[in-house]
Amino acid sequence: MKIEEEIKQSKFNNAKEKALVNIIYTANAVEDAFKKSLKSHGISLPQYNVLRILKGRKDGYATCGDLKEVMLDKNPDVTRLCDKLVTKKLILRSNNKSNRRQILLKISDKGLKTLEEIYPHFSAVNELLSHVPDDRLEILSDTLDMIRENLQ
Amino acid sequence: MKIEEEIKQSKFNNAKEKALVNIIYTANAVEDAFKKSLKSHGISLPQYNVLRILKGRKDGYATCGDLKEVMLDKNPDVTRLCDKLVTKKLILRSNNKSNRRQILLKISDKGLKTLEEIYPHFSAVNELLSHVPDDRLEILSDTLDMIRENLQ
DNA sequence: CGCGAATTTACGTTAAAACGAAGAATATTC
DNA sequence: GAATATTCTTCGTTTTAACGTAAATTCGCG
Q: Which residue, A28, A134, A149, B85, could crosslink B15 as a Cys pair with Cβ 3.0–4.6 Å?
C-alpha cells in the first residue's frame, strides 16, 4: 500500500517530506518484523546486534566504545545493555590490563549457540523482500546513503 | 558515507539484508534530526505528530483510535501521550455524547500556535534533502512501499 | 430484553530509553 | 612531574515504551 493510504494523508507537501515519513514508517515495520522473530528467544533487537557485532570481531573482543560507534541506535547505554547479556550468560566481561578504563566484552559459547538458533528466523525476515528486485534494493541503499549525507 | 563504512561492516550477505539495516540506520538519523529541531519546544516526535494529525482534521476532532490507526509508531499508548499534551494545554479533551466510550481530542489555539512556531525548523530538516533529486526520492518511496508489502 | 462478544479507553506494572553527571584511568601540556 | 584535559565506563533519576489486563460502553442476536 502506498504511504499516503497507510497513514491516510491525502498528500505530502513535497517528495522530501514524503520520503522522510516513509523511511520512519517503514523502519518501524522492519523493526517490528525483527522483534517478532526475536521474541521467542527473549532478547531485544539491540541485544541481538551486540551479539552479532561481538561474533564478527576477529579477536573476539570489543569495548563498550567499539559497540557504541557501530550500533544502529546512537548513544545507547551500552553498560546496562550488556548487563542483561551478562546476566543471561550470553557474553563475558573482563578487564583490559593495558587500559584499565576499558572493559572487554566477548561473546560466550551460549551466545554463539543462541545466534545460530536465531539465524534462520532472521533470514526469514530478509526473505520477505524477495519480491523486490535486487537492483532496486541497491538503488534504495544508495539513495539512503545520500540522504544521510547532510543529516548527521 | 556508505552504510558499510558507517557501521564498519565489511560486507552484507545480500542486498536485502543491507537494505533493511540501511533503512533502520537511516530512520534513526532522520528521527534524531527531527528530535533536535523539536527539543527547544519541549515536545517529542510522537507528540508533534499528534498535533499535526489533529490540525489536519476537517471537523477538528479525533478519537484515540483514530490517532492509533494513523500514527507512525504502532500501538502507542495514546491515552498517556495525550495526557501530556493536555497538561501542556496544547490539546483539549471532551466526551462524545453519541458514543460514550470515546474521548474526543481537539487541538487548542496554543497548540496551533506551537505548530506554527515549529514549522520552519521542521521544514529546515526537509531541506537537508535538497541535494537528492526528487525523482530519486520518488523511486525511494515506491521501493519502500514495496518493501512493506509482505512485512506487516 | 438479556446475554455474550466486540470496541474503546485507561491503568498497573515492568522494562527500556534519555539525559546528565560522576569517577576512575590515561594523555597532554607546560 | 604536576596540573589540566580527555577518554571510557558507570550510575541516578526522570521519561517513555511495552504489555497485558481491566472497566465501561456499545453491538448483535436469539
A: A134
What is the biggest distance separating any 2 CA atoms in chain B, rounded to whole angstroms? 61
The answer to whether A147 faces chain B, any CB pair under 8 Å, is yes
Residue B75 pLDDT > 70: no
Question: B144 vs A22: CB contact, 8 Å cut-off?
Answer: yes
Cell numbers that stand for A143 in this block:
539513495
One of 1.20.140.150, 3.30.360.10, 3.40.50.970, 1.10.10.10 is the CATH number of A3-149, namely 1.10.10.10
Q: Can you give the distance from the CA of residue B98 to the C1' of nucleotide D24 in angstroms?
A: 15
State the pLDDT confidence band at A74, using cuts at 50, 70 and 90. low
Within 39-58 of A, beta carbons closer than 8 Å to B belong to 56
Per DSSP, the residues of A7-33 read TT-S--SSHHHHHHHHHHHHHHHHHHH
CATH of B42-149, one of 3.30.70.100, 1.10.10.10, 3.40.190.10, 2.130.10.10: 1.10.10.10
Nearest CA to A26 out of A137, A103, A110 is that of A137
CA B88 to CA B75: how far, in whole Å?
23
Distance separating the N- and C-terminal Cα atoms of chain B: 30
B152 touches chain A (CB under 8 A): yes
The span from the CA of A109 to the CA of A88, in Å, is 12
- Residue-wise pLDDT for B6-23, tens only, equals 888 778 889 999 999 999
CA distance A110 to A97: 25
Neighbours of B15 (CB within 10 A): 20
